[in-house]
Amino acid sequence: MKPTVFVPAHITGFFEVVRADDPLRTGSRGAGVVLDRGVETSIKVMRSEDRTVVRVNGEREHGESVSLRSLEILREITGFMDGVSIHHRVDVPIGCGFGASAACALGSVLAVVRELELPVTVNSAGSVAHRAEVELGTGLGDLIAEMTGGIVIRTREGPPGYGRTDRIIDRDLYVLTETLGELDTASVIGDEAKVGAINRMGAGMIRRLLREPTPGMFMKLSREFATGTSLITPELREPMEALSEGTLGASMAMLGNTVFALSADPDAGGDEVYGIDFSGARFL
Fold it and tell me: Cβ atoms within 10 A of the Cβ of 59, count?
């Protein structure tokens, strides 16, 4: 199966939702960190068919998925008719705040564009995947961060080409995580009361971070956001407090039943340890 695309995972610390009639003007502003593990996507073209088959870690997906929707949009735009078999190898928890859906969507589009030599640029591929994420409610801002790498500040919502990003200059740090289960992103960003609380807390946080663009301030604001929005679940509070010790601070991954921290010490706690990826999505 070829080609293979690696899209790193991404954890959001805080955000605010921006909605528009156009899905390419819809998204989120905020900040997060890109991990050195994520999703590897390989494809195989089936010339005799015009369908898409998606497998995640060897298991076939049935029904609507963000990868399938991404290729439907790509077919609409380019008119390609070939069948495609997609395989995602996901190396982070799924549905737990690691941006896996965005990584799958982007990896699918990039792999197909390269293999079939479609007239689509990298930013346009990102726009296709972002549109699928917005339509299905699986995410709002992970994708542009996963294309950027580092500790990313999303200063304008939307896909690459429209959205804007900046990065925090940091020293060697690790991302420590502890995951207790899944959380449905759509159930949060589709709830107007929760979105209202998110936007009230998120407003002004980017300006505060840009005034003091450090990993420590990022974690401070993330913690303030998690508690102020009441998104953090009671079961996450104890591991969050434990992970705060000996690190730059801990908070909840948005949106997942996961706590994360930044630390110069990879042995400071947590169930999993990640490095930070500074390169973003790429072909292997």
Answer: 9
Backbone dihedral region for residue 182 (phi beyond 0: left; psi -120 to 50: alpha; all else: beta): beta
* Tokens coding 284: 């292997």
Strands, sheet with 174-181, edge to edge from the N-terminal-most edge strand: 250-252, 257-263, 174-181, 272-274
pLDDT at 233: 87
Confidence of residue 3 (pLDDT cuts 50, 70, 90): low
| CA neighbor of 263 nearest in space, from 182, 154, 157, 171 | 171
Structure tokens at 215: 């990993």
CA distance 130 to 10: 14
Unique residue bearing structure tokens 């207790």: 180
CA distances (Å), origin 63, targets 46, 55, 60, 93, 134: 20, 12, 10, 21, 17
Non-local CB neighbours of 252 within 8 Å, separated by 6+ positions: 97, 222, 226, 231, 232, 233, 236, 240, 258, 259, 260
Three-state SS at 210: helix
pLDDT band at 181 (very low <50, low <70, confident <90, very high): confident
| Nearest Cα residue to 103 out of 65, 76, 72 | 65
**Helix pair angle (100-116, 122-136), 10° resolution:** 140
Q: Residue 35: enclosing H or E segment and its boundaries?
A: strand 27-46
Q: 37-81 pLDDT, tens per residue?
A: 999 999 999 887 778 999 999 999 988 899 999 999 999 999 999
Would you call 6 exposed, middle or buried from its count of C-beta atoms within 10 A (0-12, 13-18, 19+)? buried
Q: Which residues contact 21 (CB under 8 A, 6 or more apart)?
A: none
